[in-house]
Design a protein that fits this description.
The protein is an alpha+beta fold. It has one domain: FAD/NAD(P)-binding domain (3-Layer(bba) Sandwich). The chain is built from ten helices and 20 strands. α1 packs parallel to α3 and α6 runs antiparallel to α7. It is globular, with a radius of gyration of 22 Å. The two termini are 30 Å apart.
């Protein structure tokens, strides 16, 4: 590459031109690719690894996640669970009342590959790419240079490259997404173990978990305080205390991007989604749903507007409600983990456990569940009504808002 020149000034570029370049093929990137390719965009997804690839994650899909995707997940679901237990550092066990499906279990390497395959079926393409060394935005395009010397050009770029986003670091290094950290391994499925476990405060400012899968269980620990380090020995000690052994294989760690709203979700012709935008819910660490949601909202913005300014405004608007939910969860997270005894006591009140069970199975956001339970004692949403006369009551239904027509300029 010629020195002291911008990418746009180097002769012989670009090597490839597409409508949308998506950096990262996880749930956020693949969901955006699916929607955009279906709408007729020329989409290229790049990732540093070939799929399937391993990803540290509990692999639990809540009902709202399953409902959000426009295709069946039956081929990759290994187990459906309707029982969930919580403890305070392995004591004071409570079981949520059974009220339906709480979580469907997948393995991330098969789940992520399946989502990417669905995007490819719609017309997106995928390539394994090396390290990105430079990104330049022009009024009409985004140019991305790789260590190999290759340069790609796209009208838009979606950064779905995780909590340690290379794209964000290059374009906006002063805005760093807050991070949690999880460490996980696999163990043979304990006999008769078909219950999801959250052991709060098994590590400081975090929890331990056991998620039963098809022939094994995922065992992990997570902390939301970046100043606290979790280690392999802590994970093994947790496994010993929880299951009575330390038979864990494939132990891996991974950062989680939390704190949606910390820093811009869009810069010029670049939209940030998933962990790169900090979409992981900061109380229980659910990340897959919000990753998929953010990818879909980015695709919707690109499919609905013609200028960078309007695309950014639409994406920000589409994500605003979810940013408020994240802020609400972040406040609950701060109180819950700062005052463990009071937080756990509050969580395990019978009305709260019942509300959580019903809310999760109905696919409600966590903050909405807590808010409704505290205000009404139930997760049922009352119908808004206007009294027209002493003998007539009119029920109001939410209005449906049509998206603007497709415009890909």
């Amino acid at each position: 590459m010629e020195q002291n020149k911008k990418l746009s000034q180097i002769s012989g570029v670009p090597n490839a031109v597409v409508d949308v370049l998506i950096v990262g093929g996880g749930p956020a990137g693949s969901s955006a690719a699916y929607q955009l390719a279906q709408a007729g965009f020329q989409v290229l997804v790049i990732d540093r690894e070939a799929f399937p690839r391993q990803k540290t994650c509990g692999g639990g899909l809540t009902p709202k996640t399953i409902k959000r995707l426009p295709f069946s997940l039956a081929p990759v679901i290994e187990r459906r669970l309707n029982r969930l237990e919580v403890t305070q550092n392995l004591s004071k066990r409570h079981l949520l009342p059974e009220s339906g499906l709480l979580c469907a279990m997948v393995q991330r390497h098969t789940f992520d590959a399946y989502l990417l395959e669905k995007a490819l079926e719609q017309g997106a393409t995928f390539e394994v790419a090396g390290d990105i060394v430079e990104i330049e935005q022009t009024p009409d395009a985004v140019l991305v240079a790789f260590k190999s010397g290759r340069i790609l050009s796209s009208k838009w770029l979606i950064a779905a490259d995780g909590a340690k986003s290379t794209v964000r670091r290059m374009l906006h290094p002063q805005k760093v997404v807050k991070q949690a950290f999880g460490l996980e391994g696999k163990t043979p499925l304990p006999k008769g173990k078909h219950t999801i476990s959250f052991d709060f405060f098994a590590v400081p400012w975090g929890y331990g978990w056991v998620f039963p899968k098809g022939d094994h269980a995922n065992v992990g620990i997570c902390t939301f305080n970046r100043t606290i380090k979790v280690s392999k020995n802590q994970l093994l000690d947790y496994c010993q205390a929880k299951l009575g052994h330390q038979q864990l294989t494939g132990i891996e760690g991974h950062p989680l991007g939390i704190g949606l709203g910390n820093g811009p979700k869009a810069l010029g012709r670049v939209l940030f989604v998933g962990d790169a935008a900090g979409t992981v819910e900061p109380l229980l660490g659910e990340g897959i749903h919000n990753a998929i949601l953010s990818g879909q909202m980015a695709a919707k913005a690109l499919n609905s507007a013609s200028t960078p300014w309007l695309v950014r405004r639409l994406y920000d608007w589409n994500m605003r409600a979810h940013a408020l939910e994240a802020l609400s969860c972040f406040n609950m997270h701060a109180l819950f983990y700062r005052m463990p005894r009071l937080g756990y006591w509050w969580l395990t009140r019978p009305f709260m456990l019942k509300g959580l069970a019903h809310g999760f199975t109905r696919g409600l956001p966590l903050d909405a569940i807590v808010r409704r339970v505290l205000l009404t004692g139930s997760v049922r949403q009352p119908k808004r009504r206007i009294v027209a006369s002493s003998s007539e009551v009119i029920s109001l239904k939410p209005a449906l808002v049509e998206a603007p027509a497709n415009n890909r300029q």
